[in-house]
UniProtKB/TrEMBL annotation:
Protein name: Glycoside hydrolase family 5 domain-containing protein
Organism: Paenibacillus foliorum
Keyword hit for Phosphoprotein: no
UniProt entry tagged with the keyword Signal: yes
Single GO MF annotation: hydrolase activity, hydrolyzing O-glycosyl compounds
Domain of life assignment: Bacteria
Length: 517
């Protein structure tokens, strides 16, 4: 399917180019709410129009200038691509916190000397911009987000499993105040401060973690009283996180009472953030969200380091989207760790997730439907050697349950097909009548095959699942065909091919194609 992927990349590029002059307004303040705006439990962070936050991750810093890092985040096309793909936010991780550990003067004179490879991800360098220099770069990203109607989550990040309190104090003292008035900006104290479980907060290796993070939180909340703040950022959501949140809350509120407390969870401005590495069920996540508002700020793909299936699902995004009944406005807002990369990773990987969501009915964007009853060929993109049957007569209408018209082979032709074209095809359903041509299995029927393509040239035969055939009359049966698995990335065309069979030719009564323009 390489040609499909290449075409998708080109189309995304053109969509960006043609929309350069069209800018949205910055979205309103995000909302901390549950299934309904008045829910008191199972809260997460939502957009100002009550949608889940769905984001990718990028990172920036003095010593990480190249794509997919600083340069990519400062390119407005990056933000346009994310929005076109269905994301509404980007988490920008400030890796200057990593360089600051070895550059205590923070005077921007270090030369980004390579130190080592961190065993938990990324190379370590000695070097960071001044805070003012960092904020100049961050402002470019914040402005890009605003111009494209997107949210931005600002997250300083030391090497995974660590943090620098001096850097966080210096950074948030200026950053929290600078962006406090931006309605589309969200703050996260720091990324994965301990290595790595809930029980490691405040242990001998990470003493007073909750106290140190509480000190940073108070700096942030004082400077930005209305900005949503994500706290604690658990790397693993397997052990109980609630006791850690309780300690953190107590330390933030020490010496204060009543409404003077800096951290009141019911004020709907604060959330606990968590990642889903080494997590295989939703038990502790559900226990946490029963008490505190939550947001996932990293999940990655099964097969990546420390990523397991959660409750058997291939993509953690499905677990999070379906944490409550989606049709009732439920779910947990999420950030996909790999959905902020350059096209070489973003296009194949993210769209595999998207196509899984389309196939399993948890994709969040509204769909469109081609519903073709095949009374004629006007909705068909192209056909070869196919005809619409004459209207059924009283003698044979029962064979087809009263369906007057169907598409079938022209008499005497060995092979024929119809094709459909639609952007972002996610699934289809074919309504087929056959006279003794249904095979005993659940896949292909003798005389009918299904293909997909991204360019109407290179076609891939796909497996389908057939419903149990039901007899109608005179040896005819009816069955429905759907794809067995998510369609390949970049599918824009569907082909239904009929070949001559010993008995009557198969007949296509109806085609339903669900797509996302």
């Amino acid at each position: 399917m390489k040609k499909i992927l290449s075409l998708l990349t080109v189309l995304l590029g053109f969509s960006v180019i043609f929309s350069l002059s069209v800018f949205a307004e910055a979205p309103g303040r995000p909302l901390v709410e549950g299934i309904t705006p008045t829910s008191t439990t199972n809260k997460t962070l939502k957009t100002s129009d009550h949608q889940l936050i769905r984001a990718g991750v990028g990172w920036y810093g003095k010593c990480w200038p190249n794509s997919p890092n600083t340069v990519l985040l400062e390119d407005e096309n990056y933000w346009k691509r994310a929005k076109a793909a269905g994301l509404n936010a980007i988490r920008v991780t400030n890796w200057d916190e990593r360089g600051y550990v070895n550059d205590a003067s923070l005077n921007d004179t270090s030369n980004c000397t390579y130190l080592n490879d961190n065993p938990h991800g990324g190379a370590e360098y000695n070097g960071a911009w001044t805070i003012d220099g960092n904020l100049r770069h961050l402002t470019i990203m914040v402005n890009h987000a605003a111009r494209n109607g997107m949210y931005v989550i600002i997250t300083p990040g030391d090497a995974p499993g660590s943090y620098s309190k001096p850097y966080l104090e210096a950074f948030w003292t200026k950053a929290a105040a600078k962006f406090a008035g931006e309605t589309h900006v969200i703050y996260e104290i720091t990324n994965e401060p301990v290595n790595f479980n809930a029980n490691n907060y405040d242990d001998a290796t990470h003493p007073n973690t909750t106290g140190n993070l509480a000190d940073i939180y108070k700096i942030m909340r004082k400077a930005a009283p209305d900005t949503p703040i994500l706290s604690l950022t658990f790397a693993v959501a397997k052990e109980s996180m609630n006791p850690v949140v309780t300690r953190f809350t107590q330390k933030v509120n020490e010496g204060t009472t009543g409404n003077d407390r800096p951290l009141i969870w019911s004020n709907n401005k604060d959330l606990v953030s968590f990642h889903t590495y080494n997590t295989d069920d939703m038990v502790t996540i559900n226990a946490l969200r029963a008490v505190y508002p939550v947001m996932n700020t990293e999940w990655s793909y099964f097969g990546d380091t420390s990523v397991k299936k959660i409750d058997g699902k291939l993509f953690h995004g499905q677990n999070l989207e379906q944490a409550d009944l989606p049709e009732q406005g439920g779910g947990i807002s999420w950030i996909n760790f790999r959905a902020g990369r350059d096209d070489s990773e973003f296009v194949p990987d993210f769209y595999k997730f998207v196509n899984d969501a389309k196939f399993k009915n948890y994709f969040w964007k509204p769909s469109s439907l081609i519903d073709d009853s095949l009374s004629d060929l006007t909705k068909v993109h192209f056909s070869t050697n196919m005809q619409i049957t004459p209207a059924c007569s009283p003698a044979n209408c029962n064979n087809f349950e009263g369906d007057a018209y169907r598409a079938t082979l022209i008499t005497g032709q060995g092979t024929g097909y119809i094709t459909y074209k639609a952007p972002g095809v996610g699934k289809f359903k074919a309504h087929i009548y056959s006279n003794n041509n249904f095979t005993t299995g659940t896949n292909q029927t003798s005389g009918i095959k299904f293909y997909v393509s991204g360019n109407n040239v290179d076609w891939e035969n796909i497996n389908v699942t057939k419903s149990t055939p039901v007899a109608t009359a005179a040896g005819w049966k009816v069955a429905y065909y759907t794809p067995t698995a998510p369609l390949p990335v970049g599918t824009e065309y569907i082909k239904v091919e009929l070949t001559q069979t010993p008995n009557f030719a198969n007949q296509i009564a109806d085609m339903q194609i669900t797509y996302w323009p």
